[in-house]
Design a protein that fits this description.
Number of helices: 3
Number of domains: 2
Distance between the termini: 79 Å
Structural class: mainly beta
Low-confidence stretches: none
Radius of gyration: 31 Å
Number of strands: 13
Mean pLDDT: 87
Oligomer: single chain
Shape: rod-shaped
CATH superfamily of the largest domain: Immunoglobulins
CATH topology of the largest domain: Immunoglobulin-like
Length: 195
């Protein structure tokens, strides 16, 4: 009521007054708020309301999924063998697919593809192989890279690490990880392996 009196100078209120009704005769109407004083503001406030709504919509759009290859690290273990840890991320709030769209199979899964130069080979790993690091805990343990291509889902603010076993021949080589998502875009990163 104070807002109607002070800010709208009484404009948001219908003053009680008498009118002639065709069937009822003289009646009193008023004593209530006008149409645009509740959820929809009066016309002079529409621009401010639209500005606030536009900022909210732009924020929501900025949080759509965006996948990226965050890091590739190589750990030598001898005889030309390396552990290759590939970390992929979706730093945005929205997942690459909602739970409902997963259930309805509306979108294909995200794909992580590991490519290598000719002298670097990916050795197969068992999908049930645990990589538990006591310093990182089970939750942060890398998942086994079971092949050249892995299908997965990335949730909002999610990070996943996949561990591959690779064997390098002589000379320089490279490893490249490519993450592709129908709704989260595409990203890649390449790491050169020196002698």
């Amino acid at each position: 009521m104070q807002w109607l009196d002070l800010d709208l100078t009484g404009d948001g209120w219908i003053l009680p007054h008498q009118v002639k009704h065709p069937d009822l005769g003289e009646i009193w109407i008023g004593g209530s708020g006008k149409k645009h004083v509740g959820r929809t503001p009066p016309s002079r406030y529409i621009e401010q309301e639209a500005d606030r709504q536009a900022h909210f919509v732009l924020y929501c759009v900025s949080q759509f999924p965006q996948v990226k290859v965050d890091d590739i690290t190589l750990t030598p273990i001898g005889d030309g063998l390396f552990w290759a840890d590939v970390t992929i991320k979706n730093e945005k709030t929205y997942p690459t697919a909602s739970d409902r769209s997963k259930k309805l199979e509306k979108y294909p899964k995200d794909k992580l593809v590991l490519m290598t130069s000719d002298d670097v080979k990916i050795l197969p790993l068992d999908g049930k192989l645990p990589f538990v690091d006591p310093t990182q805990g089970f939750r942060n343990a890398p998942k086994p890279g079971t092949g050249r291509e892995i299908q997965l889902w990335l949730n909002g603010s999610d990070s996943q690490t996949y561990r591959y076993l690779i064997k390098k021949g002589g000379g320089k080589g490279w490893v490249e990880a490519v993450i592709t998502s129908e709704r989260g875009g595409k990203d890649s990163k390449r790491l050169t392996i020196d002698d």
